[in-house]
Amino acid sequence: MVELLAAIPSVVYGLWGIYVLTPLLQGVGLNLHRGLGWIPFFSTQPIGPGMYVAGVILAIMILPIIAAIARDALSSVPPELRQAAYGLGATRWESLLKVVIPTASSGIVGGVMLALGRAMGETMATTMVIGNANRINISIFDQGSTIASLLANKFAEAKDLEISALMYAAFVLFLITLVVNVLAELIVRRVRMKV
């Protein structure tokens, strides 16, 4: 079931976010704004689509990917390691926490970083629920835009200088993704060296 959730196209998540999740989160957002509106992160009254909804959609989208990869990493740990821990007197939880998870930790970290890369480059679901406002606001309830959604919305009707600006934005997104992937590789190598 989790692997099926990881295969759902982002447009489906976006439509679900518009028609189901946004109305559900409206009440939660209003309560947060009423109670914590004096904090800049909650200062804007939620009106529907916004960065808050987009963040929840991205979290829901990447969670199945992380779970599927972590499950594969945990199931690929040789059963002999667990049996050896039992033979030395370890309980089930001790063998899990001290043997299985450290052995699979590089795969788990790799899954988290892969999901982060998907979230950074996500276009359709965020474009549909973020509000597409080209402004920066610290409040999570305000509408906003990501680089990917900016490219999706503006590139079709862009002309001359605007095309150059959008190409520069695409290059910046590429560089950010490259840096995250290099950092992910370094983290996975460091975790492997510890095990």
Structure overview:
The protein is mainly α. It has a single domain, classed as MetI-like (MetI-like fold). The protein has helices spanning 2-6, 10-36, 51-75, 79-87, 92-121, 124-129, 147-154, 160-194. The longest helix has 35 residues, at 160-194. The protein is globular. The relative contact order is 0.14. The model has no long low-confidence stretch (mean pLDDT 87).
Topology diagram in text:
Layout: H1 2-6, H2 10-36, H3 51-75, H4 79-87, H5 92-121, H6 124-129, H7 147-154, H8 160-194
Keywords, separated by commas or semicolons:
mainly alpha; MetI-like fold; 8 helices; 74% helix; 195 residues; globular
List the helices and strands in order: HHHHHHHH
- Rg is 21 Å
Portion in beta strands = under 5%
Quick one: CATH class?
Mainly Alpha
CATH superfamily membership: MetI-like
Question: What is the strand tally?
Answer: 0
**Total count of helical runs of at least 4 residues:** 8
- Approximate helicity band: over 70%
The outline comes out as globular
Low-confidence stretches: none
Distance between the ends: 31 Å
Return the domain count. Answer: 1
For the residues shown, what is the average pLDDT? 87
Short description:
This protein is mostly helical.
